[in-house]
Design goal:
By secondary structure, the protein is α/β, with parallel strands linked by helices. It folds into two domains: 157 residues, Rossmann fold (3-Layer(aba) Sandwich); 114 residues, Zinc Finger, Delta Prime, domain 3. Helices cover 53% and strands 8% of the residues. Strands 2-3-4-1-5 form a five-stranded parallel beta sheet, with helices on both faces. α4 links the parallel β2 and β3. α14 runs antiparallel to α15. The radius of gyration is 23 Å and the shape is elongated. Bound molecules: zinc ion. GO terms for molecular function: DNA-directed DNA polymerase activity.
């Protein structure tokens, strides 16, 4: 288990031993913490025939089937599709109503539960309202605001927190992927996101994007190129821009390098801080928050128009 999840696991496992697990849990926390690992272990514990001190035994028939990924009473919704539709949710609802094939409970795990369409979320409510006796539903989400309030209120909640920076830095080094403090902060301290960031060699993309943005005032013709850069991995890249604007504001307020989110690009935040008033930086940052919302996956409007508007207003 990831070291930063051990206290979370202990808390959840104690709830299970005390019989306080209930029928539905919502595991919350920043993306990139590995919350799926917690859900899977909880599922194994629920299904295990001989659990020992809050841990699955690892040897029984249920544990062996779960190890091989083919336990008939464990259903994990695939994480690769952009949305989860009503049919998938109805299917898992009826699975939970049937008797357990191995006679030791049934578990459904829904990773990135925000992907549920409105119809799917409403169908899930029905399952939550009439839970079968031995069923356990585990929802995993990083943006609680995108879940229906009625779903949130019917689940027990457990929030996983970002580990302290040294824990993340040590773990990454142990995995053979040493990272800088800047890289950890850019990924909001979520260790698996840093791993992904390093694997995709994102430093260069970030420098190009943010360098281009700082140059934009002098070279307005870059606007189209910049807009198309923001069109890919939009949320991540808007987040980088937001960090840069915040770093420029921090610089104006007299903060040192160590307090910046991206100390490696201090030159760029200094250039912004010198070239623009704090009102202007703050205004751009606030509009960026709305822009991120407007560009969320699942929004109907065309993100390019929003991105272009934001960039034009900055000019
Ligand atoms: Zn077992």
């Amino acid at each position: 288990m990831y070291p930063w999840l051990i206290p979370d696991w202990q808390a959840l496992s104690q709830s299970a031993v005390a019989g306080r697990l209930g029928h539905a849990w919502l595991l919350l926390g920043e993306a990139g913490l590995g919350k799926e690992q917690l859900a899977e272990r909880l599922a194994r514990l629920h299904l295990c025939h001989h659990p020992q001190q809050g841990e699955p035994c690892g040897h029984c028939h249920a544990c062996q089937l779960a190890d091989k990924g083919n336990h008939p009473d464990l259903c994990i919704i695939p994480g690769d599709s952009k949305t989860i539709g009503v049919d998938a949710v109805r299917e898992l609802g009826s699975r939970l109503q049937r008797s357990a094939q191995l006679g030791h409970g049934k578990v459904v795990i829904i990773p990135d539960a925000e992907r549920m369409t409105e119809a799917a979320a409403n169908a899930l409510l029905k399952t939550l309202e009439e839970p079968a006796g031995d069923s356990l539903l585990l929802l995993i989400a990083s943006q609680i605001s995108r879940l229906l309030p009625t779903i949130r209120s019917r689940c027990h909640k457990h929030v996983c927190h970002i580990p302290p920076e040294p824990v993340t830095l040590n773990w990454l080094a142990e995995q053979g992927h040493p990272a800088t403090q800047a890289q950890v902060r850019i990924c909001q301290g979520a260790p698996l996101r840093v791993l992904d960031y390093l694997a995709q060699q994102q430093d260069k993309a970030r420098q190009d994007l943010l360098g281009g943005f700082v140059q934009l005032s002098q070279e307005p013709t870059r606007i189209t190129a910049l807009c198309s850069l923001l069109g890919q991995e939009t949320q991540t890249r808007l987040h980088w821009l937001q960090l840069l604007l915040c770093d420029a504001l921090k610089t104006q307020a007299g903060c040192g390098h160590q307090q910046l989110a991206m100390p490696d690009l201090a030159g760029l935040s200094h250039a912004l801080a010198e070239g623009h008033s704090s009102e202007r930086l703050l205004d751009a940052e606030q509009r960026l928050v709305s822009l991120k919302e407007a560009c969320q996956p699942g929004q109907l409007s065309n993100p390019t128009i929003h991105l272009m508007n934001w960039l034009s207003q900055w000019l």
